[in-house]
Amino acid sequence: MVKLSKPSSPCLAVIIALAVTAAAVTADDPKGDVKGEQTLVGTWKVVSAKYGGKEVKWPEGTTTVKHVTPTQFMWATYDKDGKVLQAVAGPYTLKGEDYAEIPEYGVGAVFEKVKGKTLTFKCKVEGNKWYHTGKLNSGMTIEEVWERVEKK
């Protein structure tokens, strides 16, 4: 049994809870295209994004990663010091190129806007890139390019 020390911040506690919850989910409940899901399973880092048609430039040292299991997703944005700024997680479905996330837990202003809403996207994976486009319920368009994080 691994003994965890007390988290140093509420954000860290939430991230640990997100990771444990995602890891505890089994793949006994297929939710779509198994072959496609296997293509998405892993860790991804956002390399470019446009929100509302405008390209995003994050502050130096800011990173956003997405972890995908066979049934759950979790993304987190953290700063150069490793402090989590925002995070969103929950189940997802994939059928062909139709990808949908349902944020159930997270932290930050973005989570408050999307909690419990089904977010639908078109997606495709080409090589080590994941192209992700869609429109939020608010009408804002999202165009993201994620790159698979390879083992070092």
| Proportion of strand residues | 35-45%
3D shape: globular
Quickly count the domains.
Answer: 1
User: In the CATH hierarchy, what is the class?
Assistant: Mainly Beta
Most strands sheet: 8 strands, antiparallel, barrel
- Helical residues, percent: 10-25%
Question: What is the helix tally?
Answer: 3
Unreliable segments of 5+ consecutive residues: 1-32
Annotation, overall tally of beta strands: 10
The CATH topology corresponds to Lipocalin
Order of helices and strands: HHEEEEEEEHEEE
Distance between the termini: 27 Å
- Give me the side-by-side strand order of the main sheet: 1-3-4-5-6-8-9-10
Query: What is the structural class?
Result: alpha+beta
Mean pLDDT over the residues: 81
Protein architecture, described:
- Helix content is 18%, strand content 44%.
- The protein has 152 residues and is an alpha+beta fold.
- It has a single domain, classed as Lipocalin.
- The longest helix is centred in the first third of the chain and has 15 residues, at 10-24.
